[in-house]
């Protein structure tokens, strides 16, 4: 597989074309950002940790019958993925109240949410990823009602699989964000699943083991990501 030119550089990942027209290389960089890119820092080993973590999760999801763009891990920091047409809508499921929900609605952090909530946000950094709904997505052509229904179904399937996986490592999956795209006309899971895009707490102490450590300046960010990985059976290469 030959990596060709850079197609796009996001806040934490870069995307490259390859000699195959329907495959791309995702490069996970050490760059870390929060608050819509207002806070940026490079954290040593983060690219490797998130790439290896994401590969492990995507394989578990594929095993559970969830279609994803993931093909295979190529190196410590690169993975091969299917080229999709991205749907510019982020899907967020929350099992426990934290982050934006607490800020917006004033509910108590840590409250169990029954049933788990489902929210949509527009992928638009300049506008701070505003919250949207199905009506707006349909009217503005961001996704069709059928695509939105499938995205919701897959997002909850992911919840079922990952809540159990993390519970096995004494971890609570508090919330997470997923992105989808179209491949061969079908909705498939894209982007990444790593502690950068979800909240994970220790089940007993409720210690935060995700990107909130970076957002809140708690330190030990990558050590926490590695701890989470180890607890669910991820083996990180020595670097
Ligand atoms: O980021 P913030 O806490 O303001 O937003 P949230 O709505 O509470 O985020 C819910 C979950 O989605 C968290 O696990 C975030 O890390 C994740 N998220 C993300 O990965 N990317 C975004 N643009 C927004 C949320």
Automatic annotation (TrEMBL):
GO terms for cellular component: cytosol. GO terms for biological process: 'de novo' IMP biosynthetic process; cobalamin biosynthetic process. HAMAP family: SAICAR_synth (MF_00137). The lineage of its organism: Bacteria, Pseudomonadati, Pseudomonadota, Gammaproteobacteria, Oceanospirillales. It is an enzyme of class 6 (ligase). It catalyses: 5-amino-1-(5-phospho-D-ribosyl)imidazole-4-carboxylate + L-aspartate + ATP = (2S)-2-[5-amino-1-(5-phospho-beta-D-ribosyl)imidazole-4-carboxamido]succinate + ADP + phosphate + 2 H(+). Gene3D superfamilies: ATP-grasp fold, B domain, Phosphorylase Kinase, domain 1. Residues 7-231 form the SAICAR synthetase/ADE2 N-terminal domain. One of its GO terms (molecular function) is ATP binding. Belongs to the SAICAR synthetase family. Its EC number is 6.3.2.6. Pathway: Purine metabolism; IMP biosynthesis via de novo pathway; 5-amino-1-(5-phospho-D-ribosyl)imidazole-4-carboxamide from 5-amino-1-(5-phospho-D-ribosyl)imidazole-4-carboxylate: step 1/2. It comes from Vreelandella subglaciescola. It comes from the Bacteria. This is Phosphoribosylaminoimidazole-succinocarboxamide synthase. Keywords: ATP-binding, Ligase, Nucleotide-binding, Purine biosynthesis.
């Amino acid at each position: 597989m030959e990596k060709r030119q850079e197609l796009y550089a996001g806040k934490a990942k870069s995307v490259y074309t390859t000699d195959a027209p329907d495959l791309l290389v995702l490069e996970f960089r050490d760059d870390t950002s929060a608050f819509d890119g207002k806070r940026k820092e490079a954290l040593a080993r983060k690219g490797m940790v998130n790439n290896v973590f994401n590969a492990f999760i995507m394989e578990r999801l594929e095993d559970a019958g969830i279609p994803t763009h993931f093909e295979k891990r190529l190196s410590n920091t690169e993975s091969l993925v299917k080229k999709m047409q991205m749907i510019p809508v982020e899907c967020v499921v929350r099992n426990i109240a934290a982050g934006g929900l607490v800020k917006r609605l004033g509910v108590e952090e840590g409250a169990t949410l029954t049933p788990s909530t489902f929210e949509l946000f527009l992928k638009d950094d300049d506008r701070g990823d505003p919250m949207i709904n199905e009506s707006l997505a349909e009217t503005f052509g961001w996704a069709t009602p059928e695509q939105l229904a499938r995205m919701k179904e897959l997002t909850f399937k992911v919840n079922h699989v990952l809540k159990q996986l993390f519970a096995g490592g004494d971890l609570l999956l508090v919330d997470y964000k997923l992105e989808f795209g179209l491949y061969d006309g079908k909705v498939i899971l894209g982007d990444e699943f790593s502690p950068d895009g979800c909240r994970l707490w220790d089940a007993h102490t409720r210690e935060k083991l995700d990107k909130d450590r970076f957002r809140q300046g708690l330190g030990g960010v990558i050590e926490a990501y590695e701890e989470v990985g180890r607890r669910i059976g991820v083996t990180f290469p020595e670097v």
